[in-house]
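Quick illustration for those who missed Monday's session on complexes.
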Amino acid sequence: MLDIQKLRLDFPILQTKIHGKDLVYFDSAATTQKPQVVIDSIVDYYTKYNSNIHRGIHSLSQLSTQLYEDARETVKQFINAEHNYEIVFTKGLTEAINLVAFSFGETFIKPNDEIIISAMEHHANIVPWQMLCERKQAILKIIPFDNDGVLDLDIYKNLITEKTKLVSVSYISNVLGTKNPIPEIIKFAHLHNVPVLIDGAQSVQHEKIDVQKLDCDFFTIAGHKAYGPNGTGVLYGKEKWLDKMVPYQGGGDMIKTVTLQKTEYNTLPFKFEAGTTDYVGAHALATAFKYIESIGAELIGNHEKQLLSLATEKLSKNEAVTIYGNAPQKSCVLSFLVKGAHPADVGMILDKQGFALRTGTHCAEPIMQYYNIPGTIRMSFGMYNTTDEVLACCEMIDRISKMFQ
Amino acid sequence: MLDIQKLRLDFPILQTKIHGKDLVYFDSAATTQKPQVVIDSIVDYYTKYNSNIHRGIHSLSQLSTQLYEDARETVKQFINAEHNYEIVFTKGLTEAINLVAFSFGETFIKPNDEIIISAMEHHANIVPWQMLCERKQAILKIIPFDNDGVLDLDIYKNLITEKTKLVSVSYISNVLGTKNPIPEIIKFAHLHNVPVLIDGAQSVQHEKIDVQKLDCDFFTIAGHKAYGPNGTGVLYGKEKWLDKMVPYQGGGDMIKTVTLQKTEYNTLPFKFEAGTTDYVGAHALATAFKYIESIGAELIGNHEKQLLSLATEKLSKNEAVTIYGNAPQKSCVLSFLVKGAHPADVGMILDKQGFALRTGTHCAEPIMQYYNIPGTIRMSFGMYNTTDEVLACCEMIDRISKMFQ
Amino acid sequence: MEINEIQDQIIEDFSVFDDWMDKYQYIIDLSKELKIIKSEEKVEQNVIKGCQSQVWLSAEYTNGKIIYTADSDAIITKGIISLLIKVLSNQSPESIKNADLYFIEAIGLKENLSPTRSNGLLAMIKQMKLYAIAFDHKENR
Amino acid sequence: MEINEIQDQIIEDFSVFDDWMDKYQYIIDLSKELKIIKSEEKVEQNVIKGCQSQVWLSAEYTNGKIIYTADSDAIITKGIISLLIKVLSNQSPESIKNADLYFIEAIGLKENLSPTRSNGLLAMIKQMKLYAIAFDHKENR
Ligand SMILES: Cc1ncc(COP(=O)(O)O)c(C=O)c1O
Ligand SMILES: Cc1ncc(COP(=O)(O)O)c(C=O)c1O
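Prediction with pyridoxal-5'-phosphate bound:
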């Protein structure tokens, strides 16, 4: 069992007061708060080790390069990649998907080729593919979901054709909480030699991920949603794909040799890491991953599932509340609406009581279009949330919902 | 006059020992060290304000959004842009150039169009254009420089034709130290309605930049080279260009509305800021800019020029030393070689004495090809360097150079 | 009544609440009093888009006074609009133009008007004043 | 002499220096003793690329012993190679394969072999051992 009270002390921001009330932070799906070790790792870096990497010859640069490559090794182990050069550091998950959309797209996508996503994707896993399809005259196909928020796998299987070049779906929906049947999706795609990208924005912070076991071709991580710093992300890609893909950005470190006429690109992973990377961020992200491991991904996941069950149970009792997303496999978020109220109305009053919940479309407008709603109120969980917080919030939602009836 | 000893106390890393010696950090052109206020601003953010922006409704998110937009305003004022929506935050300078290469390229570049860069550019200002030219069958033309490291403006003027779509040059060469005649380059390009991008990697940390006075069309900044945190950068672009350019990356926040069929893009600057931006980095970068202003850009620049003159004077006396880059207008870096020694040899011995100098090609291989050398040893200056440090380093170089004769 | 008299009245009304829940309950009730914009005027041209909620605003000029009607898909926004219309509607362009809306801060709703809130309220006040300027201009031609 | 005897000798040689400058001066002098690879063998196939400097390495097998020749464009790297060749050249594949190069750490040059240094030295040692394995294999067939 987690000792949540002890663990909360690791997160200094949780002591904040909002309008004089204790902050109750239920917005971890948007970004998690940072444990002190992660903050310290940044301070330490700038205080003791900072120097540009590029394998410079002086000691600080050597040290800094070492820390950066150590971070890569930590990430590799954290998601159990086969090789550390399959780990590319990016500025975020959105960039990781854009990288694949561009580099995979430029390398493999031709007119009339097809890419498959689902109807419950975050804009980060929609717009890059729309942009690619427009540029390449390719076709974007959509796996629909049902009223409970479950993907229709029969339709998915029919969508795959000879022309399908890539499938890109989220591990867990950031609105509906649906945990998608990723192993099945991947197995079927691989039967047709189609690679699969996983939007893992809501993944490693909730459970242990093993990319080799999943056998996904690409896996993407948002550092700031996994207790790591802002401006960090990870693209995992199988060597066989990354190796063939053209580079994304051009600049320092991604080249082997440059002349004014012709440039030869570097090997993996450097080919995809143009310019001075955020080596401090990478180190702090590795620190965050170690922190998650020290707490235990499974314990965290179980705790969060308890919170989700409790919140679901409580809110289900309120007749004015509609929950969006009722998949049997669900995790980390709870979206709902209060009858008669705009999501912003509820969010605003909750805020005055110290509860930080996100309201709006959560960058997943097609879900809102499906249900024909302007948005939802979303309660999302981190390792530091307590059952007391859930109970207090649900009670407050009950009170608020009465105001609108 | 700057009180360097006092100012040095702002930079905690300067107390570091290297092999038992005081660190003498002469690698600021690769990355600058960070003042305590910048480090503190990151800690403060994660300790008190952290929350995803996207204009969420709850207080922390509001506060965080406010801090992010305040940072944009600070940057706007720092470089005197006309509008704050002309400021796009990026993960670095390399990304800023890649953004323009893609978005300007996709919008305006057709087969046989021409782009002009110089022969002294950093790879970040070469490779993105090579990649674009390859994709679009466009032509890259090169402004040469002479043995002193001065661009040949006559040739430049002849390079511009009806087909020229963009000129992209560096403000100051990170190898030769040449301060290029940017106002003249811009004026001439504008006579032919050609926009100009400035690689400002070596700029704002050394002098006051006024983008309206320069009248450049794009200006790019590397945050980590200007006392700001890693993983930050700025793209300034005139509204008239940014507005017409297609977006670069797709994802959250850069859209107005998304349906699975069609997406409408957001207004500036959000159109170019897909995904969760590094709002903490942006805030810390703004803090760095305020720090530079509090010290005084002009004072910093003058101090650094004194250091450069002193180092040049001392090293010129050593017959075994060859200096690369002798332009009349020079700033911030001093590249040289020692007869009989590989740059790495010298760098390694200097390191053992605590002097951190960069050796190698400095991501500007075409310069090395021009001089037919394997690389240089580069001494580069930050506001915290002292004349004593310069003297000690030059003496050490004298001692080392004797070892190789 | 003059603008400032109305504002003072509102401030007094709100002074009885010492709790945010009561204040919001009152605002929700006020939302029901809003003079709703005619459905045929609920068009793209009259919409003020926020990130989260939308506001529609229309203005008519009769007998030297401006009459505003509006709507929003968010109830609290609607309640606040209702207050704004109480204060500014049925006033002369001149006094609307010059109005200092101090009541908003006084009743504790200032943050609802922050640019980061993006609920359309700030843009709405701007639009109300723009109408006043436009009608004033027409008048003085 | 056996590998470890040579290593001990080198460690002793270096023990007189209490200053990095002297140590490097000695390494620079050693660089001049390096048995340079034949120019016709200085080809792409024999190059070991580091980020900063390059190393060329070749090996010949005669009378049960391996003879290495090498070169580098960096003097200090050349000096260190010279030491490595002193230790490993003219030894049997078997003993090269199993050699524990403890002298490198003992004389304070360990960091020159770190993967981040990228001066080709680490890759060179690997390559020297690979030659030993290859020749050993040939022998035992
Ligand atoms: C002139 C110049 N341009 C571009 C860059 C690339 O900057 P970054 O790697 O921070 O993106 C540098 C940094 O070395 C530089 O000196
Ligand atoms: C499922 C999902 N995908 C993608 C993203 C985008 O992540 P980021 O904005 O950190 O790049 C998010 C974050 O909200 C998400 O929840």
